Amino acid sequence: MRLAGWEVTVAKTAAGAQAATGKTGVAAGLIDFDGFAPRDYAALKECLSQPAVGWVAVSAEGRTASRVERELIRNYCFDYITLPLQYEWISQVLGHARGMAELDYFDPAAEATCPGNHEMIGTCDAMQQLFGTIRKVANTNAGVFISGESGTGKELTARAIHERSPRRKAPFIAINCGAIPQHLLQSELFGYERGAFTGADQRKIGRIESANGGTLFLDEIGDMPLEAQASLLRFLQEGKIERLGSHESIPVDIRVISATHVDLEAAMLDGRFRADLFHRLCVLRVDEPPLRARGKDIEILAHHVLQKYKSESTRKIRGFTPSAIAAMCNHPWPGNVRELNNRVRRALVMAEGRLLTPHDLDLESPADKETMTLDLVREEAERSAIETALRRHDYRMGETAAALGISRVTLYRLMVAYGMRNVKDMTVDDTEDRLDGDPSV
Ligand SMILES: Nc1ncnc2c1ncn2[C@@H]1O[C@H](COP(=O)(O)OP(=O)(O)OP(=O)(O)O)[C@@H](O)[C@H]1O
Ligand SMILES: [Mg+2]
């Protein structure tokens, strides 16, 4: 292996393997379970789940893998090969495994974040414009009003503005005006003195006062009752508050950011929202683009969520099938980024294969639609050729692979990737590798 340019580290114990995989960058790993005992499995699992390492399991011909070993191979290994095998072959398979690990390890989201704010992702023109607006409004003290559909990232934007503003060291206080019972909103905002009303047994500092020096985020401002709107307007005009039950005026210096997903213009026309308050709050306006208008960002966000939560899955999920990407691009996303987060997290739990499918995401498969990209056509053709050949060869892996003109390892990989079946009862022994007829294949 060294002659082929590989830098080789050999580990004879599970602890040795842990030490070796802990410090490597992107690498390929070859694992032979022979010689390891069940007590090593936990440590081996830790090595195998390292995202930077693409693993290939190797086994001497005739050796039967235990149930746990088969589970580890199925969930964490890129390939499974039996010896004896030509050296060139091993090198080639390891090259593939390393390449896959590299793809897996690369996080496209890291390239697309709002500079200085690692949480917000967006490469499309609309998001780049939004990032520009955030940078500009952050440096002023004027009221910012954020409008956008549910789940588009209004709160994230408000936090980004605060974090980039000169107020970043002071508190960011958020209050959801829609979630607080109307009769409690005034006391939540302004606070109260002991004895101000029945049950007020001690002084309470309101959210406005708590945000002193920093930013107050008034979420769902459209739900604020008219009485609280009048008090808020007074505060914005005077810069002072009075706690309930007190006549003392306390100066408070805050920057107000507000947001809503309802149509405030319509609420103003109906008399449910004060126009004079709106003009105070909305000196600068920020519009969040809906997810369906963000093009390629849908895919980038999906990868970001996958990277973030894939450790919650027991399988080593590698990405999305082309049809899953197409399904995500076609979906209208009424719940925007929040909905995308939820679908990808659900898919991580539901997935049968190593690539997430439209079915895992609970989205309509674009294969039913009229227009198909070349990637989709290839995927569908590949899947259906494998299905037909498996049936024709009575689920004998060796014969099926030969008929398709691919190696058995490639066939295994494709079947696992497409979630066609569980590998747990597969073996690569020619005499034994007939799969039980599986109607889902
Ligand atoms: N550009 C983005 N990059 C990464 N994550 C995002 C982005 N936009 C939103 N999110 C994530 O989506 C979820 C919803 O975002 P947020 O709560 O800011 O939306 P919202 O517009 O305030 O929603 P709602 O109208 O329901 O209150 C959060 O988990 C947030 O982290
Ligand atoms: Mg919100």
Q: Could you characterize what this model shows?
A:
The chain has 441 residues and is an alpha/beta fold. It folds into three domains: 2-106, Response regulator (Rossmann fold, 3-Layer(aba) Sandwich); 125-288, P-loop containing nucleotide triphosphate hydrolases (Rossmann fold); 292-368, Helicase, Ruva Protein, domain 3 (Orthogonal Bundle). The chain is built from 17 helices and 16 strands. It has helices spanning 14-23, 41-48, 67-76, 87-105, 125-138, 154-164, 182-190, 207-210, 226-238, 264-269, 275-281, 297-309, 322-330, 336-350, 374-392, 397-404, 408-417; strands spanning 27-32, 53-60, 77-83, 113-114, 117-121, 144-147, 172-176, 191-192, 204-205, 215-219, 240-241, 250-251, 255-260, 284-287, 319-320, 355-356. The strands form six sheets. The chain has a five-stranded parallel beta sheet. The protein has a three-stranded parallel beta sheet with strand order 1-2-3. Strands 4-5 form a two-stranded antiparallel sheet. Strand 2 (53-60), helix 3 (67-76) and strand 3 (77-83) form a beta-alpha-beta unit. It starts with 13 loop residues before the first helix and ends in a 24-residue tail after the last helix. Adenosine-5'-triphosphate (ATP) binds at residues 119-122, 148, 150-156, 261, 301, 337-338, 341. Residues 154-155, 219 line the site of magnesium ion.
Amount of beta strand: 5-15%
Poorly predicted spans: 423-441
Shape: elongated
Major beta sheet summary: 5 strands, parallel
Overall pLDDT metric: 85
Say which CATH homologous superfamily of the largest domain is assigned. P-loop containing nucleotide triphosphate hydrolases
> Class of the largest domain, according to the CATH hierarchy?
Alpha Beta
What small ligands are held by the chains?
adenosine-5'-triphosphate, magnesium ion
| Largest sheet: spatial strand order | 7-10-13-6-14
Instruction: Determine the CATH topology of the largest domain.
Output: Rossmann fold
- What distance separates the N and C termini? 37 Å
